[in-house]
Structures are given as C-alpha cells and as structure tokens.
Amino acid sequence: MRQPLVVGNWKMNGSRQVNQTLLTEILAGMDSVTRCQVGVCPPFVYLAQTQAQLADSRIAWGAQNVSPHAAGAYTGEIAVNMLQDFGCTYVIVGHSERRSLYGDTDALVAEKFAAVQAGGMIPILCVGETDAEREAGHTEQVVQRQLSAVLTSQGIASIANCVIAYEPVWAIGTGKTATPEQAQAVHAFIRGLLAAEDSAIAEKVQILYGGSVKGSNATELFAMSDIDGGLIGGAALKAEEFLTICRAPE
Ligand code: PGA
Predict the structure, then answer these.
(1) Is residue 36 part of a domain?
(2) What is the domain count for the chain?
(3) CB of 33 closer than 8 Å to CB of 246
(4) CA distances, 98 to each of 8, 16, 30 (Å)
(5) Region 48-71 average pLDDT
(6) How confident is the model at residue 176 (pLDDT cuts 50, 70, 90)?
(7) Number of C-beta neighbours around residue 160 at 10 A
(8) Is 212 in the pocket of ligand 1 (CB under 6 A)?
(9) Is residue 58 a part of any domain in this protein?
(10) Atom nearest to 232 CA in ligand 1
(11) pLDDT at 250 over 80
(12) For residue 99, how far is its CA from the centre of ligand 1 (angstroms)?
C-alpha cells in the first residue's frame, strides 16, 4: 500500500520571521499526523533556515526548481549539489508556473528530473493541462506528452524513485478544485500509462493531486484510489490548514 504524502510548495512567499513561525506551528501539530509523509519546499534562500528547524523532525524539505547543469557560468541558477548541501529530499520539476512563465519545456524538465535523481534526491514531476486543453478534450494527450518526455529519456525504471504530481493548471491558485472524480480519472490514466511499461513500478509510485487543495476538500480527494496525497500551494502557508490536509489521509 502506498504511503500518503503531502508536500507544501511555498512558491515565492515567506520571510525569515514568517517561516520561523509557520514551521514552529507545523512542528507543534505533527503528533496528530500519523500516516502521512510530510514535506515543505521553501524558496532557495530559506533552505538553510528550513534545514536547521526541521533537522530532527519527521518533515522532509526540498526545492521548487533546479538547474540541469552541474556548475559553471549560469548566473542566478542553483545546482543539484547545492541542494544536497542543504539536505533536500525533494525537488519539484516542471511546475506549471515554470513551464508557462519561464519556458521550461518538456525536454528541459526531463533534464532536470535526471539531474535530481543523479544527485540522489527525489524529483516531484508536475504534469497537467490548461483550461483550453481540457475544453478541447486534450487532457490525456497533454499529460501523456509531459510524462513521455521523462519516460523516453530516463526509462520506466526512473519512475521507481520519483513522485508525480497531477496539477490541472486551471485549478492552481484559482480556488477551482478538480472534483475527486475528475482528478481520479487522470490519476488512473497516468498509472495506466506507467503500468503498460511496468505494473510493479506503477503500483508503487505516489501520484499527488495539486490545485486548490484545502482542509475542507482534502479528505474526499485523498479518498480516491489513485490519489496518494497532495502538492499544496496557498493552503501550505497556513499551519492549521496545512496540518488539516496532512491529517486527511489518517
Ligand atoms: P494551490 O497551488 O494549492 O495554491 O492551487 C498548488 C501548486 O501550484 O502546487
């Protein structure tokens, strides 16, 4: 049985003071989180602070992006070994905001995915369709294309050591959540694609849902058979709300 996982994607939010309070409050509530694995992904500059505060806890941490390059003249970029230096477990790759605002292509996302795994960390691979793509009936086609970029270059074996996050772009930060049935259908489609190549790996991989998950809708989403937890944006910035989501799979 897959263990549920809830990861907070803080995006470009926080400050030393705000993070200190948020992490203290989350840590204080962790006793009642019994089944779920938990992680947080702060902005790069707060990884040291996060590591210091979470070092002796059950909460893992990670980054929101990474360079595919190992080192060199890449002004403003952060390399895999730097994230290892700060004890990261996870690295989000291919978030829709990276794809739409910063030009992360399927090929670049696959390179980042490979770099993260080569560095001994776990990529959280985000896939998901836009509103227009869903309206046009292209949801499965888009998700398959995004997944194939990794599968063809890295092979099915690479999926054994990653997390997949299905995040319909139209549900991110909009308050418009996919229904549990809509999300489940795409999760089952993703697992089916993987199962066609290796059923054991498909059965094992955690597939998270992301897009306006809140304390009030997490339970019904996580109750679906192929939804193994969530990638949480806005609601990850409020300790009580985030903890309610982490307790949802109990
Ligand atoms: P949201 O963001 O929960 O604020 O919709 C989710 C995400 O972008 O990972």
Answers:
(1) no
(2) 1
(3) yes
(4) 16, 24, 31
(5) 98
(6) confident
(7) 13
(8) yes
(9) yes
(10) 3
(11) no
(12) 14
User: Token digits for 80?
Assistant: 């895999």
CA atoms of 67 and 152, how far apart (whole Å) = 20
Closest CA to 190 of 174, 177, 209: 209
Query: What residue has token string 């991110």?
Result: 172
* Residue 225 to residue 12: CA distance in whole angstroms: 32
Ligand 1, residues 6, 7, 9, 241: which to mutate, most atoms within 8 A of Cβ?
A: 9
Residue 183: which of 147, 216, 206, 211 has the closest Cα?
Answer: 211
**Ligand 1 binding pocket includes 231 (Cβ within 6 Å):** yes
Closest ligand 1 atom to residue 214 Cα is 3
Residue 1 lies in a domain: no
Q: Is residue 2 assigned to a domain?
A: no
Residue 49 lies in domain? 10-30+45-247
Give residues with Cβ within 8 angstroms of 232, minimum separation 6. 6, 7, 8, 9, 210, 213, 242, 245
Which CATH number do you get for residue 92?
A: 3.20.20.70
Please say whether the beta carbons of 154 and 111 come within 8 A: no
Q: What is the pLDDT of residues 180-195, one digit of tens each?
A: 999 999 999 999 999 9
Torsion 217-20-121-130 (CA) sign: positive
CA–CA dist 126, 146 (Å, integer)? 9
- For residue 71, how far is its CA from the centre of ligand 1 (angstroms)? 30
Q: Which two tokens stand for residue 99?
A: 């794809």
